[in-house]
Amino acid sequence: MKAILVGLGGRGRYWLGQCQQQSGVEVAACVEPFAPNRQRATADHDFAADRMYDDLGQALNAVQADFVLDVTPPAIHEEIAMQTFAAGLHLLGEKPLSDDYQAARRVVEAGTQAGVSHMITQNYRFNSLPRTTRRLLTEDLIGPVGQLDVSLYVNWADSPGSHYVTEPYMFLTDMGIHHFDMMRYTLGQDPVSAHALTWNLPWGWHRGDAAQMILFRFANGTIATHRGIGCTVGHVPAGHNGEWRYEGPRGTLTWEGFDLYHTHSHRADPKIRRQVPLDDGGQGQNPVLREFVAAIEEGRTPECNAADNLKSMAMVFAAVKSAMEGREVSIAEL
Question: Most exposed of 54, 83, 103, 202 (fewest Cβ within 10 Å)?
Fold first, then answer.
């Protein structure tokens, strides 16, 4: 299956390497207007310079491909998507789907009308911790989840000048989307509202707010909170995963570091404190790319398809609206 990779910044070069390692995937062309990025891709990944193009239109006219892999900044995603769908190609897009909710809705609708596969790279949900947690919650190990609390403390996006640093609410939109998507995935529920507070710490290097406290209400009554700091210069307890705590009537599931624990402690019941073995998340090839290619070959809708991902994006934009307006925001308002 042949791909056109759009964007050769640091993340784009990562995806070039992933494609080169993926069985059944060939990168037919790369698109990148910035010459130093093209040179790095040629040097680091031995990619032919004559298969580099300045814009997607040139590449679409020059090569035969099955899908486009979009690794551009969020503000460009709609433009890339519309060109891709007009050419009748499938699209694998880096998250977030867009930096504008109405643009995200237009893109999802356009992909549906084009009848192509459109998937977003929500790679965190493919890891063993969320996969195992979802299974255990489905098996009703701790009973119905009443509350989910997530904490994230990271020294995030500290490269001066990048859009992560210069644009507003990027910690919420770029990192939050991973966690919000995992909330939906593990709980098997969709939220109905968001109430957010965001701020900056005095030493923070982001122009937009990089600290937050958010409360989500889910359709079944579950409450989920997300608190985080993206400019910590101290201890980072669990990397970008964060620490998670699911509260149920028969105990808790907790993500502690990179381990999963089941705990039940009440005077009327036998005490339980055990580390849960993690399900095999699959080794080797990139799970997102593997799922995308398999879905196309099997003629089915991929996991993390754009229509589903729009529900995770709604959590982001409801939280941003709430932070800006200082009130709880219903998802239905968007």
Answer: 202
